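Mods, move this if it's the wrong board.
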Amino acid sequence: MLDPGSALLIELAPSILSADFAHLADQVTRAAEGGGTVIHVDVMDGHFVPNITLGPQLVKSLRKATKLPLDCHLMIENPDQYIPAFADAGADWISVHQEATRHLDRTLNLVKSHNCHAGVVINPATPAELLSEVLDIVDYVLVMSVNPGFGAQSFIPNSLNKLRRLKELREQRRLNYRIEVDGGVALDTVARIVQAGAEILVAGNAVFSHGDPMINAQNLLKAATEATLQKV
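Not the wrong board. Structure tokens:
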């Protein structure tokens, strides 16, 4: 299991989807210097989502460029076929979509069998309650706060209710999964997001699309941390 979630333990997972791939190693290093502690890797197959991104070979190269955990988010059909390859390439965390996985329990245990942290992802229209039978298996739950497939989308406000619900379920059942959020995480949304219960913040556009990734990461983490100290 990942370390149990804490209201004050906020982590930033810069998403390389928005990075400049011509300078990927440098950009990842800068984001880490700004406080990023996990590198988020969006894997898309053009079938489950309407976009194609990258595969195990890039993960293998990225593994050489950073010692931070690599969080591989598989937005793909038939993830069981590719989990071993991503694990062998250097993934530390692997998450699969509830909507793309026929046998979710088996798939999550497959991830664990490759010595990776196992995460489950839900799209904006998927209720948190559908994860009831696997919450005791997963290390983290990733809430999509945009429809998956592309970066730089606007945050879907109803995602806040889902974050709150996952936090409630964790407390009620005394479980230890972390709560991650992906989509529209920016300076104008991050306070509401962490106050609703998110602990791992996936941010691509806000970190990499303009300016220095180090400064952007610092500013985003500062805003998130300050928000945890405010009364909701």
